[in-house]
Every structure is written in structure tokens, then in C-alpha cells.
Design brief:
15% strand, elongated, 37% helix
Length: 372
């Protein structure tokens, strides 16, 4: 699959960090607002594009009527305990915007997609468990908003079908590698899947949705180097005696994560699609290692250079002087325009070569090496 995604669409997702409020901050608005403010501060200090993501569920219809209040299911208990009103969601979204972060949500049902539309959220997330929930995807597609999907435990065909679904509707899409283990150990991360996703879906930004519990640096360095350009983590704060889930990151840990991103970008440098520009400092360093050409014996004007006899008539040694030729420049068939004595350095004035006609090449040779 190789859909042509515009550069503008790619920029929506490039170097985007998604912070998900774990468990909808336990249904406590004040706690949620504090989480938004603390993590927005960390994002601002590190100057990174950050989206803060909520979870939307229409709790009244999401749980079957016969199982309302059912205590044997941890998921049902948590869903009911973290229910928020539209007004509370609005307060959170307003605060996210006020803090210069991007509001987004994962809708887990069709009614919640409408809530995304009501709040005009600029990004929608599809959870791993829902990338083949077609009624939900159809409703999301109607919003015409950029979408991020997590692949989790989906098989290849399921991912292909979901990607093609959004491609066919020209909806910008990013694809997250994700291991749906909460928390994940280092050995669970399978970061080589970033290579797989980049190879299979080259038109899309590939991200990494992480639930690991012990390291906020190594996986960032590795995932960035592999080409991931969007990242997601669950976040929380340690406040009020509420236990923090082991897969959640605290503000100081996300700060370390952001700093690892900056270090990864610094170390990886520019494009991987073309040869890098060589800085002047590096070029000067390498020039010090280049050997210049010196005559081994006296040679007269009209001498013809030949690789078969070059080592009999010349030798290479440091230092290279300004205007002196190195082994890179001499070409078979060129001639000496003037005589040269033994141990004298061969210069551009001795040879009628292309550096006489090419001003840029001549200037390069005249400006490199030691002063005469």
C-alpha cells in the first residue's frame, strides 16, 4: 500500500506527542484540570507539539442495561466510576486549548463521535480494539478529521483494511505501533514493528504508542531512530492518595521523555533520503588527513600522467598545501605544463587539468591545506 499523502497532511502528525488522561482522571474534574496544567507546562518548557487526549464513552448506552452496576467486571466498574458530563468535558477541553495544547479524544462508541464533532476536536484517535469496528469508523469518517489509529494485536489484513478505509476517503491518517499490554516490559515492545509499518504504509506517519513502565528514554531514542514521528503515553499525577497505574507517566517522567526526543533528533540529524551536507568544520578536519602529491624525481614539461607509472614518478605525503594537487585530482593522460624537481609539490600550475577551467574547483584547491 502506497497512498500519496500530502506533505501538509503529514505535518499534522509529525513530531506530535499525545498524552492520554488515564481513566479519565477518575471522573474528578479538578484532578483532570490539574493534570492538564501540569503536563502543558512540561510541554511548553520543552517546546514540543502536544495533544492531550480524553476518552469519550456514552456510558448510559455503552453498558448493557442488565449489567449496570455490575461489580464483577473491572472495566464496567471503571467506566461507570469515571463518567463525566458534557459540561465537565467542555471545561477540560477549554483548559487544554487555553494551555496551548491540542484537544483530542478517543471515542469508544458512535454517540461519542458526535461529541467529538460538538467540540470540533481537530484530531480523532481510534483505539486498537476498534480498528475493525466499522459502524464506529464510518461515523468517525463523517467528521473529516485527521485520525490516528493504534494497531495493537490486529493482524495484517485488519490493519490493511482500516488504512485503505481512510485512504479511500482522503482522510489524513497516522498509524501507531502499539503493544496492548498494560504495562509493557522492555521485552514486550517489539520496536522492529516500526520498520514493518514504515515499509508497508510508506505514505503515512508511523508512531509509537507506549505503555512501558520502566524507561522513558531508551525506547524514545530507538523509536525515533527507526523513523517513528508520533508518540503516545498515558499520564497521571500522584495526588490525593489515588494509585497511579504502572503504565502511566508522571510529569517529571514525561519531561525526561521529551528530552530524550530532543537528544534523538539531535543525534539522528537531517534527512535519511539524501546525502547530508558536509559542514565546513568537518571538511577542514578531513583536509588535514589528505596527502599531497610530490615528485619522486625530476620531470620535464610534457610528461604524461599514467596510473601504471605514477608510483615510480610521484609519492603521497602530508601535509597538503594550498594550491597543491592530491591523488583525487590527477587524471590519466594529463600533462605537465612545466618541469618539476624531485620532492617539489605538484600544484595546479604544473598541470593543464580541469581545475584550470573550473573556477569553483580551482578556488577549492587554492583555499585548502596549509599556507605556502
Amino acid at each position: 500500500m502506497n497512498a500519496l499523502i500530502s506533505a501538509e497532511d503529514r505535518r499534522i502528525f509529525d513530531n506530535l506527542f499525545v498524552l492520554e488522561l488515564a481513566n479519565n482522571h477518575w471522573g474528578n474534574l479538578d484532578r483532570g484540570l490539574r493534570i492538564v496544567r501540569e503536563f502543558a507546562t512540561v510541554a511548553r518548557v520543552n517546546a514540543v507539539r502536544t495533544a492531550i487526549k480524553l476518552q469519550f464513552r456514552d456510558v448510559d448506552s455503552f453498558i448493557h442495561p442488565a449489567f449496570k452496576g455490575y461489580t464483577e467486571s473491572r472495566y464496567i466498574k471503571k467506566t461507570e466510576a469515571t463518567k463525566l458530563s458534557i459540561e465537565e468535558f467542555k471545561a477540560l477541553i477549554d483548559e487544554i486549548r487555553n494551555c496551548s495544547c491540542i484537544p483530542m479524544a478517543t471515542p469508544f462508541d458512535e454517540a461519542s463521535v458526535d461529541l467529538c464533532g460538538l467540540f470540533d476536536l481537530p484530531l480523532i484517535k481510534v483505539a486498537s480494539s476498534d480498528i475493525s469496528t466499522w459502524p464506529l469508523l464510518e461515523r468517525i469518517a463523517r467528521l473529516r478529521k485527521p485520525v490516528i489509529i493504534s494497531t495493537g494485536g490486529a493482524n495484517e489484513k485488519t490493519i490493511d483494511d482500516c488504512v485503505r478505509f481512510f485512504e479511500n476517503r482522503s482522510i489524513p491518517l497516522a498509524i501507531n505501533h502499539c503493544v496492548s499490554l498494560y504495562p509493557s516490559e522492555d521485552g514486550d515492545l517489539q520496536l522492529n514493528q516500526i520498520d514493518y509499518l514504515r515499509g508497508r504504509y510508506p505514505g503515512h506517519v508511523i508512531g509509537f504508542s507506549s505503555h512501558e513502565m520502566g524507561d522513558w528514554q531508551s525506547s524514545m531514542l530507538i523509536s525515533y531512530a527507526k523513523g517513528a514521528r508520533s508518540w503516545e503515553r498515558h499520564i497521571d499525577i500522584d495526588q490525593g492518595g489515588v494509585p497511579v497505574s504502572p503504565y502511566c507517566s508522571l510529569p517529571h517522567q514525561v519531561d525526561a521523555w521529551y528530552q530524550a526526543f530532543r537528544k534523538a533528533a539531535e543525534m539522528c540529524g537531517g534527512s535519511g533520503q539524501e546525502r547530508r551536507p558536509i559542514p565546513e568544520r568537518e571538511r577542514r578536519y578531513l583536509e588535514d588527513l589528505v596527502r599531497g602529491i610530490y615528485a619522486r624525481r625530476d620531470l620535464g614539461a610534457g610528461y604524461v600522467f599514467d596510473s601504471a607509472s605514477f608510483n615510480d614518478d610521484f609519492y603521497l605525503a602530508i601535509p597538503l598545501h594550498r594550491g597543491q594537487l592530491s591523488c583525487r585530482e590527477v587524471i590519466n593522460g594529463e600533462r605537465l605544463t612545466q618541469a618539476i624537481a624531485a620532492d617539489e609539490r605538484l600544484t595546479i600550475d604544473h598541470v593543464d587539468g580541469p581545475y584550470q577551467q573550473n573556477p569553483a574547483l580551482r578556488r577549492l584547491i587554492l583555499e585548502r591545506g596549509l599556507e605556502p
